[in-house]
Amino acid sequence: MGKGLPEIVGWIQSKVREAGADGVVFGLSGGIDSAVVAGLAVRACGPGAQGLILPCESDPKDIEDALLVAKTFRLRTREYDLTPVYRQFLTVFADLPPNKLAQANLKARLRSNALYYVANEANLLVLGTSNLSEITVGYFTKWGDSAVDLRPLADLTKTQVRRLARELGVPERIIAKAPSAGLWPGQTDEAELGLTYEQIDAYIAGEPLPTEVAERIAMLEAKSRHKRIFPPSPGRES
């Protein structure tokens, strides 16, 4: 399951060449997935790799971690604070009641817009940072962090991403931190999912799990199917 480091790097290089692009750009959040993508991007594209730090009411520690990753891999970065844009958007829709999930998804979609704005300006491809574990249970924002050109981690479980992180030399504090999308204070992936990544990875591998755990993962996988396919049309349902 999943390719190794040389194969993924070579795949990124070939896709960039095929598109006639000058490099790649991706969101650098300070988490393990974006850190691994940073290491892959620099190996594949050198100075043609760019990481965008896109805080949006974000924890300053995440920005510090993103800068640590950039320093580790000598990655070119730009920082754009999307907080004013986010707050202005909510002001425009002030007649609607506050919705925590909708607001969280808005942050992800604003980041996607920022990535494509820079990608269009500099002739770059957008790299996604979602891994197979997240994709399986639909733990990503439709047309947000899923709106990308290439998904280098999409065949790797979270367990495999952690292994690749150590192979690349991602700082240990990044590997050890609790996975979080940073969408609100104290938010973590596993608390929101009600599952651990170890359980999701075991499900993907076909390993035995308690019935209630396996049923919950299967329910999330089925419920999020629409997020993994193009929207249906009358003549093509999937």
> Nearest-angstrom radius of gyration?
18 Å
Distance between the terminal alpha carbons, to the nearest Å? 25 Å
CATH topology: Rossmann fold
Strand content: 5-15%
Helicity, in percent?
Answer: 40-55%
CATH classification class? Alpha Beta
Mean pLDDT: 94
Strand line-up across the major sheet: 3-2-1-4
Globally, the shape reads globular
Q: How many β-strand stretches?
A: 4
Provide the low-confidence segments as ranges.
none
CATH architecture term: 3-Layer(aba) Sandwich
Number of helices: 11
Using brief descriptors, characterize the structure shown.
238 residues, alpha/beta, Rossmann fold, four-stranded parallel sheet
Account of the 3D structure:
With 238 residues, this protein is α/β, with parallel strands linked by helices. The protein has a single domain, classed as Rossmann fold. The chain has eleven helices and four strands, in the order αβαβαβααβαααααα. Helix 2 packs across helix 7 (158-168). The longest helix has 23 residues, at 100-122.
